[in-house]
Design goal:
mainly alpha; 72% helix
């Protein structure tokens, strides 16, 4: 994992940006580093040490500054050590110590507030495109598929594929999800009750359950939920989570984020009156400084998980947005080409049948992205975070590539 702090990387990037001749603005750096709309805000947050760019973003920023990623990392590592040495040099006078502790206390509160704001912002952006993809692609596909009788039972991944060593490869896992969705659709077409008729987002939750459990419904307790909460309730049974709001998902991630500094923050609150006092003795100053250092450590330890979460949200949002736009368009073209109802599998023809299978794959990819346990990134230890980040990256890459190859 990284050996530099977000603060140090931000300082180094800002200095190199300002050292350009002519001096480069944050908006110009964002444009040259291929950030999208509002990229200057992201650059500002990076330079303020609120977030640290992922590998892809770091490489783009380095290129824009006429540096290599290695050079930026090395300078950030050197700056990290320098900052640590500076902070190890405490002021001699108690008055100066009090002033420094107050400043650090204020910085902690500001950083926690900014993290929560950023988490909410990116979470809401994901939720918006997620709901569009769900309503405009997933549920519309399910509705069309339910009108087709006689669809064959899809082949499940073989036991040899799924029972081998360790984790299930992404392709096999998404294929299994698609099979679950297909079987739920076949059940509805044969007279079941888990389809779109059950009602919008609740049906989405039911089909998510089908993708995970291979059944058409998870029962009344979950089917009575609405929106993404239905999905989350299903995933919670597996100890999972989802990027979407509600349950153990994005809202849970926000709560967890603030909870990660809950103990230090509670201690700070208990000792907070010392901050407001104009005078305090050496013992009181030592107490508050200890609490401030504990809160700073908690924030530092969670920085890489927080950065990973933001990167996942950005990529997942782009995938959902693609499905919501291009997937919806492709689905409409398929709908127009379908024969009138009542429809039978054979009446679709080879091309229509293949399109049906491809849309099942897209639906499986959509659920795989939605079910990423993003909140777990925030509490993972470095080794576990590295493995999780690798697995999530594989899911996002595969889903993005597969979806774009189909629609």
């Amino acid at each position: 994992m990284n050996d530099f702090s977000a603060e140090a990387m931000g300082l180094v990037i800002r200095e190199h940006r300002q050292a350009q001749r002519p001096s480069m603005t944050q908006e110009e750096l964002a444009k040259r580093a291929d950030y999208g709309k509002g990229g200057a805000v992201s650059i500002s947050r990076i330079e303020r040490g609120l977030i640290s760019p992922g590998e892809h973003r770091l490489a783009a920023i380095a290129l824009a500054l006429q540096l290599t990623p290695g050079q930026l990392k090395q300078e950030a590592e050197d700056r990290t050590r320098s900052l640590a040495r500076q902070r190890g040099q405490r002021p001699v006078k108690l008055r100066d110590q009090v002033a420094e502790t107050k400043r650090r206390h204020a910085e902690i509160n500001e950083k926690v507030a900014q993290r929560s704001k950023i988490t909410q912002e990116f979470g809401e952006a994901f939720n918006h495109v997620h709901d569009t993809a769900r309503d405009e692609f997933f549920l519309r596909f399910v509705e069309l598929a339910e009108s087709i009788s006689g669809a064959p039972e899809p082949e499940r991944p073989s036991e040899e594929e799924t029972e081998s060593t360790g984790e299930i490869p992404t392709a096999i896992r998404i294929e299994a999800m698609s099979v679950g969705i297909a079987n739920a659709i076949r059940g509805v077409a044969a007279g079941g009750a888990a389809g779109v008729a059950a009602g919008g987002a609740a049906a989405y939750g039911a089909f998510t359950a089908a993708a995970l459990f291979g059944t058409a419904s998870t029962g009344a307790a979950i089917s009575t939920l609405s929106g993404v909460a239905a999905t989350n309730a299903t995933l919670a049974l597996l100890g999972g989570g989802t990027l979407a709001a509600g349950g153990a998902g994005m809202a849970g991630g926000t709560l967890l984020l603030t909870g990660m500094v809950a103990a230090p923050a509670a201690a700070l609150a208990a000792a907070g009156f010392y901050v407001l006092r104009q005078r305090r003795n050496k013992k009181e100053e030592e107490r508050l400084r200890t609490e401030v250092e504990a809160a700073e450590a908690a924030l530092d330890q969670s920085q890489q998980g927080f950065d990973a979460m933001i990167d996942v949200l950005l990529r997942a949002t782009a995938i959902m947005e693609y499905v919501g736009v291009h997937g919806t368009h492709a689905l409409e073209k398929w709908r127009v080409s379908l024969p009138p109802e009542p429809r039978h599998w054979k009446s679709l023809g080879h091309e229509g049948q293949e399109r049906y299978k491809e849309f099942l794959t897209v639906a499986g990819c959509l659920l795989a992205v939605s079910s990423i346990n993003v909140s777990a990134l925030l509490t993972a230890k470095p080794d576990a975070l590295r493995e999780m980040d690798k697995a999530i990256d594989e899911t996002l890459r595969y889903a993005d590539k597969t979806i774009k190859s189909i629609v």
